[in-house]
Amino acid sequence: MPALEQLPAPYVLLNGLGLIVGLFLLDAILSRRAEDVRDRAYVLFVFAIVAGWAGAHLFDAAVRGVPLREAGFTFYGGFLTGTLFYILASARRMSGEQTWRTLNCAVIPIALAHGIGRVGCFLAGCCYGEFIGESSVRHPTQLYEAGGLFVLTGALSVQQRRYAHLLVPVYLLAYATLRFGVEFLRADDRGEWLGLSTSQWISLALILFVSAVGAWYWRRGFRSTSDREP
After folding, report:
1. What's the half-sphere exposure (Cβ side, CA atoms, 13 Å) at 59?
2. What are the two backbone dihedrals, phi and then psi, of residue 92, each rounded to the nearest 5 degrees?
3. pLDDT of the residue at 70
4. Which of 9, 92, 121, 148 has the maximum number of C-beta atoms within 10 A of its C-beta?
5. Taking Cα atoms as reference points, which of 141, 227, 144, 230 lies closest to residue 186?
6. Distance (Å, rounded) from C-alpha 74 to C-alpha 165?
7. How far apart are CA 22 and CA 144, in angstroms?
8. What share of the chain is helix, strand, coil (3-state, %, to 5)?
9. By the 8 A CB rule, do 71 and 64 touch?
């Protein structure tokens, strides 16, 4: 993404719109599903956004090896920093169940806000894709990702009542898979190792982590069920 001093108006506008829409949606979902800790969680999420903004900037500087003044922003850097901040900050202010419940409340707002932000990336020309064949037209990777995020937002919204406690792992698996695929078509500088981009390595780590935790919980639940059988 562009450096701070190079951010164009469409990028700022769309990312600002995504932030506003996401915060309004977050407040509405917290009011329905976490009313007991709504205000506390909302404030912590706002601080987590600030921490994520800083993390996204620092991560981009580290990955591309550029000074901070020339660094842009990376989603994974911001997402991981903000999530870690929220979990640590909520440790003494909420129970484990409340923290997990509020994290699930934040999934749909994050996916929707991110999708809107990616449209801003398209208008700004950052996060651009490779040329299509021999033409001078590039893959609109920003729109590919935005479309995937909007579809994910819709799917999670339809299933949120039934699977309210599973939105986090579903989101992580779905987005990591989407991002891993889109990265093959991107052509901007984002770090690379062994033929894969930094974001692809993070996506793989998330997929493996969520799958391992899910398998552990499934086996634990299966054993518990078996133990109760006569």
Report:
1. 21
2. -100, 0
3. 80
4. 121
5. 141
6. 27
7. 20
8. 75, 5, 20
9. yes
